[in-house]
Design goal:
This protein folds into 2 domains: about 80 residues; about 100 residues, no CATH class. Helices cover about 50% and strands about 10% of the residues. A 4-stranded parallel β-sheet has the order 2-1-3-4, sandwiched between helices. Helix 7 runs antiparallel to helix 8.
Length: about 210
C-alpha cells in the first residue's frame, strides 16, 4: 500500500527579515496574506519550507541576524534536494532609503503600541515610587501610556503624510518638491533616536 504525499504549494514567498514586525511590514507593502507569505522565524522554519515555486525576499537588515547564513544555506540545500524550487531571490528588497526607513519606523511603532496598550495611566501611576526625589517621578508623570499612544499616533500620521507625498511625486516627471524632502527629514529625525540602540538602524538614515 502506498501513501500519497500531500502536494507542495505551487507558490509561496519566504520573507527573511530582521524580525516578525519587519516581515509583517513587507507583507503589507506587497499585499500578501498569510497563505501567500510568511516570516522565516528560524532555521527550523527554513528547513520546513517545501514549495514548488518559492520566492525568497531578504530585507536589508536580515543579514544582521545571527542565523542568516544558516537560513540561506538551508534554502539552498532544499533546492538541491528537489523539495523546493526557488524561482526568484530578491536581496535588499527595498533600495529606496525612504521606504526602508518607513518600514523600520512602523515596526518600532508597532512594538511601542503593543507595550503601551498592556497598561493604563492609573496602573502606571501606581507603580511610580513617589518617595524618590531625584526628578524621575516628574519625568514618569510626563510620559504615561496615554502620552506614548498619542506620540505613536503622531508618528503614524507622519508616515502617512510622507507616503502620500511620495506617491504623488512618483507620478510626476518633475523633481520632488520641498514638501517631500521636509517630510523625509522629519522622519529621519524621529528614527534617529534608534541610532546605536537598535541593530537594524541604518546609518544612511542619519538626518
Amino acid at each position: 500500500m502506498t501513501t500519497d504525499m500531500p502536494p507542495r504549494p505551487l507558490a509561496y514567498t519566504a520573507i527573511c527579515a530582521f524580525d516578525e514586525a519587519e516581515a509583517r511590514q513587507v507583507q503589507r507593502v506587497l499585499d500578501l496574506d498569510d497563505s501567500e507569505a510568511g516570516y522565516v522565524r528560524n532555521l527550523i522554519a527554513a528547513q520546513a519550507i517545501h514549495v514548488l515555486g518559492l520566492n525568497v525576499i531578504e530585507t536589508p537588515s536580515f543579514a544582521q541576524r545571527p542565523d542568516a547564513v544558516e537560513i540561506r544555506q538551508a534554502l539552498r540545500v532544499a533546492e538541491e534536494l528537489g523539495t523546493t524550487t526557488i524561482v526568484a531571490t530578491v536581496v535588499d528588497l527595498e533600495t529606496d532609503p525612504g521606504r526602508a526607513m518607513v518600514a523600520f519606523f512602523a515596526a518600532r511603532l508597532d512594538e511601542r503600541q503593543a507595550a503601551a496598550e498592556k497598561t493604563s495611566d492609573t496602573e502606571y501611576a501606581w507603580n511610580v515610587d513617589r518617595s524618590i526625589t531625584d526628578g524621575s517621578v516628574k519625568h514618569a508623570d510626563l510620559y504615561p501610556p496615554s502620552w506614548a499612544l498619542r506620540d505613536i499616533a503622531a508618528g503614524r500620521e507622519l508616515i502617512r503624510q510622507y507616503e502620500e507625498a511620495r506617491e504623488y511625486y512618483e507620478k510626476r516627471t518633475s523633481a520632488p518638491a520641498g514638501e517631500l524632502h521636509g517630510l523625509y527629514a522629519a522622519l529621519a529625525l524621529r528614527v534617529s533616536v534608534y541610532r546605536g540602540q537598535h541593530p537594524a538602524y541604518d546609518s544612511s538614515w542619519k538626518p
